[in-house]
Specification:
It comes from Thalassomonas viridans. By secondary structure, this protein is an alpha/beta fold. The chain has 2 domains: 169 residues, Lyase, Ornithine Decarboxylase, Chain A, domain 1 (Beta Barrel); 237 residues, Alanine racemase (TIM Barrel, Alpha-Beta Barrel). The protein has 12 helices and 17 strands. The chain starts with 11 loop residues before the first helix and ends with a strand.
């Protein structure tokens, strides 16, 4: 069984926590339950600093916003306030959490499709920046702003549907732009158009850079009409490299999946250019006149906004599942299924009908005497046949026993709670914010 290409990248401090503090992990699980998510605000802070360094190296004005949907933990919002970055939200609850963490309303971006009136009123009251998804939403907001009688106009961006995303349900088509700009001129007493935004699926830096150039072209068009636009929002989409090996796809040819499960595709788990390095490539992307995106931003005195979620959460969390028992798979000679205390809802790649491939670690106080590998799939403890955390048979060096812990690495970005559920009347998993300073471990319950 070829395994090396699917070993998870794991920060040295997290490796040390898992290897040297087994009793502490078990204590947390005994007291707080399984599954249990550990989050690391210091890793999150380091990622923020890395993005800032790239932006400052390119000498562009910027506003960095954390895409709040990627993780609900309150500690990350608190770090945003400390690092003086904003938060991108799409609900009243997310907006309130950002404010409670100390983030200024002016540093909160509001995105999502046709937004509810309570969310829009909250955004207007705190001078947030609202990304408008359609001409109809633009009209609704203008009427809302006029009726509210605010002293200052509502700050907005127009969300554009890029040419590469023609099937997306989000954003204005290019053909709608002229109507939207005319509306902004007519209603400029109540709404202030500051620029344009876009959100792309996928992680192609060239495509994202070209979309940035397209947004700048729209800025120039709006300025010719007398609209004082000064910023673009290029969204998130900066990949995370979960695996060291570029050969991970080939390794799947040697892997076996429970019940012969097959998947249509996987996240690109190894990325040679990821995180802040991917942003660097985006800013270097040139248009047809061979002008880089960074250069155009500088020359036109524009601010670039970006909303990383997953990339700011790289190595910022792990998920622990306590083993309830293990049994052989019927009809096989060497495959097993370990049932854990928890469900696959807490590992949300299942939401996309795919598999979280970085191999988890088996943590045990006991050591097998036999020199063997055990092929183990990991199942949730619900009554659903499809409740599988890992359909793939993982090669463990020892047989999973009751109260052993299976640790999934690097799960803070979308995995932990995007798909959580109270199925079987269970409580959602708790989170513990862990600070690692040398050999000293401090922690507190994160009451999300």
């Amino acid at each position: 069984m070829k395994q090396a290409s699917l070993n998870a990248v794991c920060h040295p401090q997290i490796q040390s926590l898992l290897r040297s503090n087994k009793a502490k992990l078990q204590e947390w699980i005994n007291g707080l339950g399984s599954p249990l998510h550990l989050v690391f605000p210091e890793m999150f802070q380091q990622n923020i600093v890395s993005f800032k360094q790239v932006l400052e190296r390119h000498q562009v004005d910027y506003q960095l916003l954390f895409a709040k949907k990627a993780n609900k933990a309150r500690c990350f919002a608190a770090v945003c306030a400390q690092e003086n970055i904003g938060i991108d939200v799409a609900s009243v609850a997310e907006f309130e959490l950002a404010l409670a963490a100390g983030v200024s309303g002016a540093d909160i971006g509001v995105s999502g499709p046709h937004k509810s009136e309570p969310l829009l009123r909250l955004a207007m009251a705190h001078n947030a920046l609202i990304a408008i998804d359609s001409v109809n939403e633009l009209s609704d907001l203008a009427c809302l702003a006029a009726g509210a009688g605010q002293a200052q106009p509502v700050r907005i961006l127009l969300r554009i549907r890029p040419q590469s995303q023609k099937k997306s349900r989000f954003g204005l088509a290019g053909s709608e732009l002229e109507q939207a700009l005319a509306f902004c001129l007519e209603w400029r007493r109540h709404i202030q158009l500051l620029g344009f935004s876009c959100h792309l699926s996928g992680y192609c830096t060239r495509q994202r850079g070209q979309a940035g150039h397209q947004l700048i072209d729209y800025i120039e068009q709006a300025r010719q009409l007398g609209l004082g636009c000064d910023r673009i929002n290029i969204g998130g989409g900066f990949a995370v490299s979960y695996l060291d090996s570029p050969d991970w796809r080939q390794s799947l040819d040697y892997e076996a999946f429970h019940a012969d499960k097959a998947f249509g595709g996987f996240y690109p788990y190894h990325n040679p250019v990821a995180g802040a390095d991917a942003l660097h490539q985006v800013l270097l992307e040139e248009n047809e006149q061979q002008l880089s995106l960074g250069r155009r931003l500088r020359e036109l005195s524009l601010t670039v906004l970006l909303e990383p979620g997953r990339a700011l959460l790289d190595q910022a969390g792990i998920s622990l599942f306590s083993v309830q028992g293990c049994k052989p798979v019927s009809g096989t000679s060497d495959c097993h299924i370990a049932t854990v205390s928890g469900m696959s809802f807490s590992l949300s790649e299942q939401w996309f009908n795919t598999e979280y491939l970085p191999s988890p670690l088996l943590i045990s106080e006991q050591k097998d005497e036999e020199d063997a590998l055990y092929k183990v799939a990991v199942a949730g403890n619900s009554c659903l046949d499809d409740d599988m955390l890992s359909w793939r048979f993982i090669a463990f060096e020892q047989y999973p026993k009751k109260q052993d812990v299976i640790a999934y690495i690097n799960t803070a970005g979308y995995q932990m709670d995007s798909n959580e559920s109270a199925f079987h009347s269970t409580e959602p998993p708790r989170k513990v914010a862990v600070m690692l300073t040398g050999d000293v471990i401090t922690w507190q319950l994160d009451n999300q």
